[in-house]
Amino acid sequence: MITVVGSGTGVAAGGGPDWRGVSLAVGARRHLDAADVPSGVRRVVLGPLSPALDAVAEHLTGDGRVVVLASGDPGFFGIVRALAERFGPRALDVRPSVPSVALAFARAGLPWDDAAVVSAHGRDPRTAVNVCRAHPKTAVLTGPGAGPAELGAALAAAGPRRTLVVASSLGTAGERVEWLSPAEAADRVWPDEVSVVLCLDEARLLAAAPRALAGPPRPPAGWALPEDAFVHRDSMVTKYEVRALALARLGPRPGDLVWDVGAGSGSVAVECARLGAAAIAVERAADGVERCRANAAAHGVDVHTVHGAAPAALAELPDPDAVFVGGGGRELESIVSLCARRARRAVVVTLAALDRVPAVRAALGAAGLACDGVLLQSSRLSPLPGDVTRLAAGNPVFVLWGTRPATEGVPS
To answer: Could you give the CA distance from residue 375 to residue 347 in angstroms, rounded to a whole number?
Structure first.
């Protein structure tokens, strides 16, 4: 039997370890030291996981019992997953303590059934940063290289207004909870004992209504919204048929970052944000920037809007997962080339002019993307006098896309 005991944030359910018959104790050094492991019990300090699991397997072949010490609830982004995969859930006696996320929100005086929770411990921190950009209430489980300073620096550089609540040494005598801006967090040197960082939009700390399903709001039931759902100038908005195909090829999802280059009204950026992705709209016209911001506010999503002309305006932006290019003029080829080099997964380009198709395809291919595309031409139902209907043809649009090989369908 493997007894997994959560510690550090309160008394574990079922009590602490019973050391009778235990031959092996596994855990972080601070947990082993705090647990007062008997002298006759072998200690394995957690570092790389495989040697620790091998040691557990060795002790289970005899009559010895194993105790694994972890933080908080070890079944929540913790070691229970690895133990269950290796030894099966019936070999485990799990005694969780209070989850660090629950304790951090309690210290902040906030409910957390409407929060996004993401782990940056041992993972690429960009996913956590993008979730913080997209959602008004996020908890980040930190790790080396993905702590308050790194999160703060990324959010201060490109992101909506946020407040960070940094919770250190939760459940101990040295517990500390601090509220500060991303820039302030970026300028600090933080101890390893940071437990969790809450990233909050203080204007939207509470869900609008009681929730039935935990986590951030579900993606909307509808997408490819009609053009009149957005403020735009002289019909300069991506038509919903084109937007539907573009969204399908962009594949926006929570944890992603999408650029909308030549955003105009920002309709693509807004729709990506409604589907859970972080979105950056790049627009060179000042009135277009205001329309992007107005549309994001109207739909209740965060879109970081950059006023500037591509490709120069793209230089300081964080690398995207996917890019939509809906404008570009004479700079289109260089814009597509830059976007294709930096996009992790896909680039979608819409064109009215046939003459530009070869150059865009070449730019996508030169960056190593597999290129495909269609000429999209649709006719909408349009009423006529006498209660009859005709088909009104829209202007044809080329939709080209490039996908980086071996990334399509890969989970984040």
So the answer is: 17
Nearest CA to 334 out of 363, 368, 366 is that of: 363
* AA letter at 187: D
Q: Which residues contact 223 (CB under 8 A, 6 or more apart)?
A: 244, 247, 271, 274, 275
Pair 192, 244 in one domain: no
Q: Give the phi and the psi of residue 77 in degrees, each rounded to 5.
A: 55, 35
Three-class DSSP labels, 43-90: EEECCCHHHHHHHHHHHHCCCCEEEEEEECCCCCCCCHHHHHHHHCHH
Say how far apart CA 51 and CA 379 lie, in whole Å.
63
Extract the residue ranges of the chain whose pLDDT is less than 70.
9-16, 328, 407-412
Q: Tell me what the pLDDT averaged over the chain comes to.
A: 91
pLDDT digits (tens, 9 = 90+) for 225-238: 999 999 998 878 89
Q: Give the pLDDT confidence score for residue 408 in this predicted structure.
A: 57
Task: Give the DSSP per-residue string, 158-210.
Answer: S----EEEEEESTTSTT-EEEEE-HHHHHTS---TTEEEEEEE-GGG-S-SS-
User: By residue range, what is the domain housing residue 22?
Assistant: 2-98
Q: Are residues 139 and 64 in the same domain?
A: no
Query: How far apart are alpha carbons 256 and 124 in whole angstroms?
Result: 12
Do 376 and 330 belong to one domain? yes
- Take residue 265 and report the two structure tokens written for it: 């009204």
**Under 8 Å between Cβ of 114 and 24:** no
Question: What end-to-end distance do the CA atoms of the chain give, in Å?
Answer: 34
Q: What is the spatial order of strands in the sheet that 163-168 belongs to?
A: 116-119, 137-141, 194-200, 163-168, 176-180
> Both tokens of residue 181?
């801006």
Residue 41 included in any domain: yes
Supply the CATH number for residue 242's domain.
3.40.50.150
Sorted by sequence, the CB contacts under 8 Å of residue 51 that are 6+ apart come out as: 44
Whether pTM exceeds 0.85? yes
Same domain, 247 and 279: yes
For tokens 């260089």, name the residue: 334
Same domain (yes/no): 10, 91: yes
Domain closes at, from 98, 127, 155: 98
Largest CA distance in the chain: 94
Nearest Cα residue to 112 out of 78, 73, 139: 139
